[in-house]
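your task:
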Amino acid sequence: MDAKASLISSGPAALNEHEAKQLLQQYGIPVVAETVVADAAGAVAAADALGYPVVLKGLGSALQHKTEKGLVHLHLHDPEAVRRAAARITEGAGDGLEGFLVQPQITGQRELMVGMFRDAQFGPVVLFGLGGTLTEALGDVAMRLAPLNRWDASQMLAEIRAQKLLTAFRGEAAVDREGLLGILDAISRMAVEHPEIAEIDINPLRVTPRGALVAVDALVALRPPAEPATPPLVVPPKEIRAIFHPRSIAFVGASAQPGKWGNMLVVNTISGGYEGRIYLVNPKGGTIAGREVFRSLLDIPDPVDLVIVTVPADKVLPLIDQCRQKGIRHMVLITSGFSEAGEAGKALELELVAAARQAGVLVLGPNTMGIANPHIQLFSTGTTVKPMAGSTAMVAQSGNMGTQLLAFAEQQGIGMRGFSGSGNEAMITMADYLEGFEADDTTRTVLIYVEGFKDGRRFFESARRVSHRKPIVLLKGGQTQAGQKAAASHSGAMASDNRVFEALCRQAGIVSVYRPMDLLDLAAAFDALPLPQGPRVAIMTFGGGWGVVTADLCQRHGLVLPALDETILREIDTMLPPYWSRANPVDLVGDFNPDMTFRVQEMLMRWSGCDAVIHMGIMGRRLLIDRLSQSVLAADPTVGPDTFDGIKALAEEFEQEFGRRSLALMDELHKPVFGVSLRADHRTQTVLNIPGAHYKGVLYQTPERAVLALSKMVAYGRFLAQQE
């Protein structure tokens, strides 16, 4: 057994400070020189040998949080001060005192902290941030899951708000960044190599005036490694694909009564135009919707690829054996009353999974809202939604939210690859869906709504790999204390510390959002637009106020508004009045000149100083003209009803031409264009499709939605670039 393993395995629930530092030293972490002594006389002798001033601490594996207990005495300048400090420590420590630590007083104005703890869902998490007594109060901490690579560690250093403390500060040298990266790497290796270490806390990690790093205090807490829970079996991607591409479907629990699940799913599937064969099953037999109803799965004469089940929970288990006999390998289990319904439901779900595995049946759900695949006109969900076929795949642990988002996608022209309400994820987890979509060439973007994870670590590892190929846009429920309580009552999800989850998203390249509609806004942007190559934005607007507000939004989201170059200024001077803004944002001062609008947009797109263009108030004028014509006709009976027809036609023609030119410039220059509509109605869609164009137009209804989408795309592009 090596020294590291011996030190840890023989220790109590926590190592004492000196033992903890010995372990840190074995991993190359610099620690303060110190002497362990038994009593006050030994402390004085050690202090005399070290030279004053010194620090005296109580030592004991049970003595944690020593500063708060008065067991740390700093700046001791003579033997008498050491004796007084030893007496106070002896009195305060009681039976937990094992001895004293004598250390030299390390100078330096800056205190950092490095640590590790084990998250219940995701495993070991490494921390870095400001140290000292204000660590918890300030909360200026960055996190990443172990093991870390160099990019992970570098990002941790870049994330803390107090960046200035890492540079030259008040006459002291900049922090030794290589040394700091090495310490983070060492903590990561300790976490991976020793699962019995529950927690590591180096606080403070003192920065000397020369920028060197010294661990002056350390805690290492131990616990026996927990027995790992049996993770769900991995579902191969081909099985995920098979569920979404059935050639025939049997509905068990089919009903003729409108409003019942057994009816809604059937009529939505039939009316949606599903291209495969449909079979209805109900023990009563008869006909439903003019179709024969079979009394059992075994009575169906033809092969069945997928069975969709709505019968009560206590009637599901016998269906597993029928599926086995019939050779049906995939089931979508709509039925609730399983693990989300308490202990009895959990036991029933475990029994169901065991039976399904033995029978070779893969169950999606239970407690799901169904599935959809517009590419084969399959819309088997509890609500009537029929989005167009596209390249965005969506999985939602809340089926209601998922189907509502599908309805918005249908309304806004956002094409969907497929949808699943994942339900309780008894057999198919979020990681399985991710890996299935990773292998699907049609899927370009993945949308996820999640409240908890069956196998959080595998989800992280899958997401980190998938993000290199396809953006993952994710909304997590339960990010606040109230939300966590709601999540537990809704789906039994155990939400992790939100800061850990946010760190996971940054580390894995996940595009995290906080509002449901942001999922679709980002889906539209990633699906329709080229990825921006940087954060520089040019803005053109027909209203000065919109430009100002959007400029503020850009700065808050980390985007940059570069100054216009002289060539562009001179060119626009020839087209606009002298009082135009002469700056970015470009205010077109309400001058509706189609040719001028086209020329300004093209100049900004071709400008090497910008990576993306936002235009506002250019699209949507036809609605203003409609409302104006209605007002005039209502107020003035002498005006003919066709007075505004020509103006309306010109407005329609301009918007179509502007959209066409925008897409042509994107096709040529590979820069994204984000639009903000002046007005919107039921005809207004987020995504504008023009035949023959490689990209699509994107038109949001507010500047904040456009800026958020652009900023998230920029962040994702930065993630991809840093991984190369």
User: Anything to note?
Assistant: The chain is about 40% helix and 20% strand. Residues 645-669 form the longest helix (25 residues).
